[in-house]
Write a structure and sequence with these properties.
With 153 residues, this protein is an all-beta fold. It is built from no helices and 11 strands. The strands form 2 sheets. Strands 2, 3, 4, 5, 6, 8, 9, 10 and 11 form a 9-stranded antiparallel beta sheet that branches. The protein has a two-stranded antiparallel ribbon with strand order 1-7.
């Protein structure tokens, strides 16, 4: 049986790691993968280019403040069915959903624990080069002091 994500609120989201409070840039459901679109926190979407960075701890309405997001979470009940334990889980091409089949950009986010629960670790799967392109030259972090070096003889 293939995994189905109904897209509704999960019955339980057990967060781990650091969390933050944000203003919702759109509607989302408890357990949704959340990413950034410009400066707005919205549902992640694999073919829409919104990379998952967090997991929603609660439902949110657009513009709602103090919405809690987890870095990692176990998402259980009422949302999933047909999961195969141990299967890799990806962000779906449908905003805010998960799938055991790779989406357009094949971004893994975690794995299935059993038929109706997953563990999502969006930040663990982010690449160090996500969102950055160096077209020429080099890039150095913290090189804004115009340091100079002379070799005393």
């Amino acid at each position: 049986m293939a995994m189905t994500d109904a897209g509704g609120s999960a019955s339980k989201v057990i967060g781990a790691g650091p969390f933050c409070f944000v203003t919702a840039g759109g509607v989302w459901r408890k357990g949704d993968p959340i990413g950034l679109s410009g400066t707005s926190f919205v549902r992640a979407d694999d073919n829409g280019g919104i990379i998952a960075e967090f997991v929603a701890a609660t439902d949110a309405a657009s513009g709602q403040t103090r919405c809690k997001l987890y870095s990692y979470a176990v998402i259980e009940g009422q949302r999933f069915s047909g999961n195969v334990a141990g299967s890799v889980v990806y962000v779906s091409d449908t905003a805010g959903r998960y799938s055991e089949s790779a989406g357009t950009n094949s971004r893994p986010i975690g794995y299935s624990l059993d038929a109706d629960s997953i563990v999502a670790m969006p930040r663990a799967y982010l690449s160090l080069t996500s969102g950055f392109t160096i077209t020429s030259g080099t890039s150095e972090i913290g090189d804004d002091h115009n340091w100079s070096w002379s070799n005393p003889t």
